[in-house]
Every structure is written in structure tokens, then in C-alpha cells.
Design goal:
Elements lengths: L2 H10 L3 H8 L6 H40 L1
Length: 70
């Protein structure tokens, strides 16, 4: 199976957001594609965690302001 076909098969099985970001990169091997896909996934997870943290902090600040106004 040609290397391009293997990469295409791998990328078609990924999460759409990851495959879109990975598609923009120059990939020379399946191993490189796997490493970069994992890096993208970790970055997305970290970003998601930060967004959730910020949302929770905003909620707690609102609750605190309500309590202080009572």
C-alpha cells in the first residue's frame, strides 16, 4: 500500500478537528502523523480544560457577588 494511501486512511479515522489541523502540516511518515495528531489532541484537551476552568471561575464570581449583595 503506498505511503500516501496509508496516511489518508489514518487521517480519515481521526476526529474531524484534528484531521483538519493535521492536513495543513507536511507529513513525511505515518509515525510523524501519529505524533503530530497526539500533540494536537493534547493541545485541544488543555485548551478545553482552560475554558472549563474560566467558565467555572466566572460562575463562582457571580455567585459570590450575589451573596455579597444580600
Amino acid at each position: 500500500m503506498p505511503a500516501e494511501s496509508i496516511l489518508a486512511d489514518f487521517m480519515s479515522g481521526l476526529n474531524l478537528n484534528i484531521s483538519i489541523m493535521l492536513y495543513k502540516l507536511v507529513l513525511r511518515s505515518l509515525d510523524e502523523a501519529i505524533r503530530k495528531a497526539k500533540m494536537i489532541e493534547i493541545g485541544q484537551r488543555n485548551a478545553s480544560g482552560a475554558v472549563q476552568y474560566n467558565a467555572k471561575m466566572a460562575q463562582l464570581e457571580q455567585e459570590n457577588n450575589r451573596v455579597l449583595q444580600q
